[in-house]
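Schema walk-through. Below, the input block comes first and the output block second. Nothing else is stored per chain. Lengths vary across the set, and this one has 121 residues.
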Amino acid sequence: MSSLAYDAGFRARARRTQGWGLGLLTVAGLLWIGFAVLLLTPYEVEHNYVTTTCHARITADDLHDTSRVCAEARDWPRLLGYLGASLPFAVAGSVLTAIGSSAHRAAEHHAERTRLDAASV
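--- output ---
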């Protein structure tokens, strides 16, 4: 295998790793957006065939009162579940993006050093 083919393969793997990382960060971002929507938007709840309009969860006056229908519809454990589910995606995405970016930069650096060494001879 020639060094040019190896370098091209190395760069392709680095870009692929970086792409996976960005994809995982996108999934984490979508989970964060879902959390924000559930937390910041008003909603309606149907209970005993009566529709109740509820304020956004973050602005509700009775955040800790679980006896109300509105508070039960969007409870905190479910909301925090979105953040907890996003954590592995965010960590893995950050790590893969950093690894892919570093590998690609290292390949560029090595190629530039090789070119400069060849030019100076």
